[in-house]
Design brief:
five-stranded mixed sheet, four-stranded mixed sheet
Length: 318
Amino acid sequence: MYRLSSRAIIGHFYKRLNQNSGMEWVTAISNYFPSDQDSEEYPWLGQSPVMREWVGGRHAKGFTSNGISITNKHFEATIEIPVKHLRRDKTGQVKARIGELAARTNSHWAMLLSELINKGENTECYDGNPFFSTDHKEGKSGKQSNKITFDITKAGINGEVGSPTSPTEAALREAILTGINAIIGYKDDQGEPMNENANKFIVIVPVSLWFVAKSCLGVPLTVGGATNPIQVLSGLDVAVTSNTRLTAKDKIFVFRADGDVKALIRQEEEAVQVKAKAEGSEFEFDNDAHQYGVDTWRNVGYGYWQHAVQVTLTKSGS
């Protein structure tokens, strides 16, 4: 008699988990760090020293007093399957459910990072200010902002700009370039340019703006026949992705994607594991069913605010 075994189910889960590593933007904007304890300290957030003339010996620069602590949390997802379904599943419906569980497990990092992005205006990062703030300041950097607004009327062609939740290609293109320009201009705690060699960026937009964002980046010519400035800027690599979890419809988020230290941090103490109450278990005897549980110990936090900017679209006169 055909029966789908727990070994086959667990094997299928890990196979699907490895086939789909999750969303590419996750690794583009976040560093992954393994953990071996309840929480981890990140005192290294701050900038490395610049070259200086050798006068009076070496001047060593240690870690800054700024930093963050990330505490690991326990996450789980459990599915219950009646034994009769395992016995009768010749059409692959159980495997489909297990595959879906693997896909949802892979998207967990995206869910956690999206929460960080959504609450970035109200949650502190390593310098004591909200991650998206107008008041960042460290050492000799001067006051800096990664929470900016862009008035779409500045990019109108024949008066057409759309609205903050539905801008034209020209308006959104200018907003994206404004965000990139802000990132390139940030200074470190020594007053030195921090992102002067940045050339790879990813723009995360709500689903409602995905089509116009793809269009404004991809077309060789803008509306009106001018050359698309994003395509002609030497060495500039800009990608766009939509995020269904973004809560604001009038905001876009620009991230530097080629820095050694990213804007966000993924921390993991225990990788994803599958545990089963299956053949021969007391649970099977009492319930005539199996349970398959997925769990992991992990969490996320803010890294360099200087590698991210929130651009809120506005429209003057409205």
